[in-house]
Amino acid sequence: MDNRELSNIQIKVGGPSGSLLRSYNFNYTFTNRVFSGNYGGIYYAGTMVLNSVTEKGTDNATALPAMSFTYSNLTTNYNGSPSFSWPHLTQVSSGFGGTIGFSYTQVPSSTANAIWSREVVTTKTVNSGIGATQTDNYTYLGRISGSDPIPSILVQGQRRTIQRL
Fold first, then answer.
1. 40-98 per-position pLDDT tens digit
2. Are the C-beta atoms of residues 136 and 153 closer than 8 Å to each other?
3. Could you count the other beta carbons within 10 Å of the beta carbon of residue 12?
4. What is the CB neighbour count within 10 angstroms for residue 117?
5. Which positions ≥6 away from 120 have C-beta within 8 Å?
6. Cα separations (Å) of 132 from 50, 98, 129?
7. C-alpha closest to that of 68 among 109, 25, 129, 6
């Protein structure tokens, strides 16, 4: 697995050698590739997840609270074998008390034949930390081609189908 990452972004006034306005630092976690005995032996790529983003000021030292990201390993499989776990984003925390949470379900179920399953978002919950919480529920109505489900969203009692470009 190629594990190069974007470590920071600097915003400057006056070009590349100008004055620093702010910077964003990124923190990641990496896992190694995994060997499976399936298909006579195969390696599955490792993972790289973004843990946090920290904004710093003009002195590149004074920092705002970091925005953090939480993941859960969820299973993808083909007829139940092979199966492997990949990190799925479950929560974003703003650093100021706000959060966005995601829950998933497997589509199709793990009992489907001759098809890869995938985890799809079923609920998104937004909590600003200062007001009402908003929850959006997602359902999947069918397939465009192969095993790709067509998502639709239920927003405040109205169903909308998400269009693919």
1. 777 777 888 999 999 999 999 999 999 999 999 988 776 656 677 889 999 999 999 99
2. yes
3. 14
4. 21
5. 104, 105, 106, 107, 138, 140, 149, 151
6. 28, 11, 8
7. 25
Q: Are strands 42-44 and 118-127 parallel, antiparallel or unpaired?
A: unpaired
Nearest to 118 by CA among 90, 152, 77, 159: 77
> What is the distance between the alpha carbons of residues 46 and 14, in angstroms, rounded to a whole number?
40
Tokens of 48: 């790289």
d(CA 148, CA 107): 9
Taking the C-alpha atoms of residue 126 and residue 93, their distance in angstroms, rounded to an integer, is 10
Q: Do 54 and 93 meet the contact criterion of CB atoms below 8 Å apart?
A: no
Q: What is the pLDDT of residues 17-53, one digit of tens each?
A: 899 999 999 999 988 877 777 777 777 778 889 999 9
Main-chain dihedrals φ then ψ at residue 66, nearest 5 degrees: -70, 145
Report the alpha-carbon distance of residue 141 to residue 37 in Å, rounded: 35
Average model confidence (pLDDT) across the chain? 81
> What are the residue ranges spanned by the domains of the chain?
1-64, 67-165
Letter for the amino acid at 6? L
Is residue 77 within 8 A of residue 95, CB to CB? The reply is no
Provide the 3-class DSSP secondary structure of residue 76.
strand
